[in-house]
Structures are given as C-alpha cells and as structure tokens.
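Mods, move this if it's the wrong board.
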Amino acid sequence: MKMTRSRSVDLAAPRRRLKTTPAVSLWRPEIVLATSINAAPTQRAVVLAEPTARPEAIRTQLGATRSLLAGLDGARETLSTVAADARTRAAEAASTRERVSATIAAYRAEAAMDDVLTGAWRRVSALMEERGLR
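Not the wrong board. Structure tokens:
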C-alpha cells in the first residue's frame, strides 16, 4: 500500500493569479441625470354616463344639429333662388352693363353661400368637439 503524504496548506503565502481577459464583457452604461423632468400630459379620464352621454344632453345636441341643418337648408334655398334670378337676368340682359350687373349679383349670392357654409362648418366642428369626436 502506498502511503500518501498529507499536504499542509499555507494560507499566508500569496497565490499566483493569471491575468486573463474574459470572453464576455459586460456593458456598463453611464448614468445621466436629467436637469429637468417634464410631467406626462394628463389624459381625460373615461367616465361612464358622463353628462354628454345623458339623454337630456343628447336631445340638446340633436336639437342644435337640426337647427343648424334647417338654417343651412333655408340659406341654400334663398341664395340658390337669388343666384338663379341673377343668371336669368344676365342671360336676358339687353346691354353689357345689365349683364355685368347681373353677373356680379350672382357672384355675391355665391359668396354669401360660401359664408353660410363656413359658419355652418364652424358650428358643426364645435358640436363634434363637444362630443369628443375631434
């Protein structure tokens, strides 16, 4: 039988280390602190059955929409009649002066219709914003 010698470990002796580069290097980002922080924009909370969804509010909005459309239809009829009359006058005019005058009247009626449409568009946009559609 073989006899094994016991080895004593000398803990006080310095150990020899090999300097090796690791196969994987870890990413060490630099920490950057913000000088100022902007708060996140607050979003409107969703609430069930909020006042704009109640029957009274919907009736009011429907009434406003009907009024807007009725006013727009009335203006269309009136201004269409004025423009048609002006075009008829221009076609039947005996002189250049009468023809120019009738043409200008037709243009004025069309410009008034454009103004009515622009106002109606603004009112419709306001109604849509009330409902949260824009």
